[in-house]
Amino acid sequence: MAKLRGRGYASVNYPTGMNLGGDPSQALIHSTTTGTFVVSLSSVDLGQGIKTIAAQCAAETLGLPYGNIIVDTADTDTGPHCMGTFASRGTHRVGNAVIMAAAEAREVMLEVAAEELEVDAADLETDGTGFIQVRGADEKRIHITDLALAAHFEHGRTISGRGIFLKEKNEPVPETGEMDPDSCQAHACTVAVVEVDDETGVVEVLELHNAYEMGRALNPAMAAQQVEGGAWMGMSHALFEATEPYYPARDHGPRDFSEYLMPTAADIPVQRSVILERPAANGPFGAKGIGEMTANAPIPAIGNAIFDACGVRLDSMPFTPEKVLRGLDELRGLDELGDASERAHAPATGHERP
Amino acid sequence: MNHRVNPIDKSYFAGERRDGDFTVIGSVVQRSDVLGHVTGRTEFFEDLALPDMLHLKMYRSERHHARISGLDVTEALAVPGVVRVLTHADIPNNLYTPLKLIGVGPDDEPILAEDTVRYLGDPICAVIAETEAAAYEGVSRVRVDYTDLPAVFDVEEALAEGAPLVNEYQGQNHFIYEGHHCRRIRFGDVDKAFAEADHVFEWRYQSAPIEQAPAETTGCVVVPQADGRLRVHSDTQACFFTLDNTALILETPFNKLRVVGGTVGGGFGGKVDVVVEPVACVGAMLTGRPVKFVYTRYEEMQVSSPRAAERIYIKDAVMNDGRITGRKVTLYVDAGAYARHSPYGTTKAAAHLPGPYSIPNVWADCHCVFTNRTPSSAMRGFGVTIGDFALETQMDRIARELGMDPLRLRLINAYRDGDMKAHRKIAEGTALVEVIQKAAEMVGHELPDAYRRMSSTHREGR
C-alpha cells in the first residue's frame, strides 16, 4: 500500500456577464458639503467586495483619496437599478457605471474649482490627496473640502454625476446558437499536485498553482482572495460535495455541515498564483470578472492529477474515496468483493508522465 | 496593513497595458466591510429583531410526486401561538417563474402547492406564529393526504417516451427553446470531421447536485409600514429582481415594496431565486405585523436550489498531430421540478462550448430537463463549472491517448484573437496561450521554443 503522487492540468476561460434580457446597472454620485462623495447603488455585496471596488473606481476617476468615498447601496428607495450580483458582472457593470457617474461629477468639480480659482478648467488637475490645482503651478489650488462648501453656498452648483452601463439584449438564433452573450473572457490555467492513498482511496491535494488573466486586478489583495477562495471551493467540489451522493437516487442527502463535508483549514493545499493582465477594452480600467471562474479549473486539474497518480479515471464528481477504490479495484481486476476476476489485469501505477 | 497578494507578471501584454498614473486602482485598499465582519459588528438582515415580529415556517411535501387529496390545518391552528396558516388560496398570483421579467415563460411554479407536489420539499402551507417553536409545532400538526404519482429522477429516463410528466405547465419534460427541444449550437460539419479524423474519442461525464453553502441561509424580514408599504429586509443577491418578482406575485404596484439589503453572508448563486420574500410579504399583509422567514440549514441543503447535476457526452474528432477538428456535445442539465433559472444556465452552457479552443466543427444539443427533484438554479460558474470538468478531463484523456504533453495539446488548440467561436462571435482579448505558458513556467514544465513563442494575438504562419 502506498501514497501515490500525481500532477494534473486544466485551462479554462470564463465570460464576464451573461446577457439574455439586457444587462444594465446604474450609479449616482454626489458630493456632500464636506467634500465626501456618496456613491448610490442598489448592488449587493455578498462578501466579494463590490462596495470596495465601487469606491476605488470612484476615487480614481474623481482623482480623490479612497477615504473620500462612501458607498451607499442596496436600498431600492434610494439606489438606482442594478440587475444583481451574479454572472461575474458586478465589477464590470457597476465599475463602468461608477466611472461614468464619477467622470460627470469630476467635470462639475473642475468647473466649480475653475470659477473659484479664476482659471480655465482645462488647466486643472487633481493630485490624488484631495487638492484640485493648476497644472504646473500647484501653489494655486483648493482642497475638495473647501470647494464642496463653496459649490453649495456660493456657486449654487451640485457636484454630482449619473452613470449607467448597459449590455443590450441579444437573442440567440435558435437554429445555430449564434449569440453575443458576454462582454469579455478571463482565463486561467491550474496545475494540481495530489497524493492518493491506494488503501483508503483518500485524495489529498498538496499544491495548486494558478495562472490567471483577469484584465486588470483593481485591488490585488481582493483578487488573491477570489483566486484562493475559489480554488478552495473547486477543491471542495472535486473531492467532497454533493447534496445527493448517489445521484440520481434521492437518498442519503446531507442535512447539515456534519453530513455535508467541506475542507477545513488543515486540508488547504499550498497555493501559488500569478496574475496576468490583458486589459479588456470595455472593462473598468480593463478589468474582467473572475468572481465565478476561480472554482472551475481546480476540479479537472485534481481529477487529472488523480489519474496521473494512480491510473484511475474519474468521470463523475465528486471524487470520493469510494470511487477511487472502485477504480483501483477495477485496474487490479478485482470485483466488488475484492476477489480477482477474469478481467484484464492492469497495474495501479506506472503511468508515465509525458 | 498585512495582506496577501499574488504577483502580477507585467511582462505579458506589456504593449497593451496603459498603466498611466493610477493612485487607487491596482492598489490594495482595505475592504470596507472587513472590520465589521471580523469583529462581529456587521449587521445582517437577521439582526433586525422587532418586538411584534412573527415567525413563518413551511410545511413541505413529504413525497416526490403526488396529488394532494386532503389538507387539514385545524390542529396546526389550534397550537398556542399560531396566528395563521397560509395556503395557495392566500397568494394573489400563485403561479410564477422568476425569469418572466425578461420574457421567459411559461409560469410553471406555484408559491404554495395547489393540488400537486412535484418534489420532496415542495412548499404546501406556511405556518405563522408568535415564536419559532410554535411555528415548528404548527408545521408538525399539518395533515396532508397524498396520492402518489409515478416519479422520474434520471434526465435521460425523463426524456424517454412514456416517462411520467413532471410539470404540466411546461407540458413536457424539457424546456422548449423557440420551438426547439434544446439549446443548439451548429457550427461547421461535425459528421465530416468525424469521417476524416485520425481518431474519434467519446466519453461520458456526470456530476451530482451541489449546495451553495453560504454561512447565512436564505431569508427575509418583512415589516409593514405606516404608509401601507412593505419594507423587505432580505439577503437576496438582486434587490430589484426580488422586488419586481414579488410585486407580480402579490399583484401590487411595484412601489408598494421597498427592498433593503446589500450585506449578505455569502450567496454563490443560491440567493438569486425569489423563494422567501413573496410568502413572507403575504403573511405581513394579512397579519399587519412583521414576519420573518429564514431557511433552516436543512432547507438550505435539501430544498433551496442547488447547482444542477449535469450529464455530458463529448465526442471528438482528433488528428494525429493533436488538432481537434470536430466536437459533438450532448448535455443534459437536471433542472428538477421547475425551471427557475435553468433555461438561462443551459444557454450559458451552450455559449461556453466547445471550451477555450478553436474547433472548426461544433455540434451541441443542450437539454434543460425536468425531473422530480429539488429545482436546481444558479450557482457560481452557472452552466460552466461542470462543463469545464468534462471538457478538461476530455483534453487530458485525448493527450494520454495520443501520448502527447497535455499542455502542448491545449496550446495547439487554444483559441486566439480573431477566431470565430462556435456561437459565431469573434474572439478578442484572448489569453489562454499565455496562462498555459505561465503555469508551465511556474511548475517547471518545459515547453519547446515553438510553444513558448505562441501568442494569443496571432496564430503562427498567419
UniProtKB/TrEMBL annotation, chain A:
Residues 3-269 form the Aldehyde oxidase/xanthine dehydrogenase second molybdopterin binding domain. This is Xanthine dehydrogenase family protein molybdopterin-binding subunit. Pfam families: MoCoBD_2 (PF20256). InterPro entries: AldOxase/xan_DH_MoCoBD2, AldOxase/xan_DH_Mopterin-bd_sf, N-heterocyclic_Hydroxylase. It comes from the Bacteria.
Automatic annotation (TrEMBL), chain B:
Transmembrane segments: none annotated. Residues 39-150 form the Aldehyde oxidase/xanthine dehydrogenase a/b hammerhead domain. SUPFAM superfamilies: CO dehydrogenase molybdoprotein N-domain-like (SSF54665), Molybdenum cofactor-binding domain (SSF56003). Keywords: Molybdenum, Oxidoreductase. Pfam families: Ald_Xan_dh_C, MoCoBD_1. PANTHER family: ALDEHYDE OXIDASE 1-RELATED, XANTHINE DEHYDROGENASE. This is Xanthine dehydrogenase family protein molybdopterin-binding subunit.
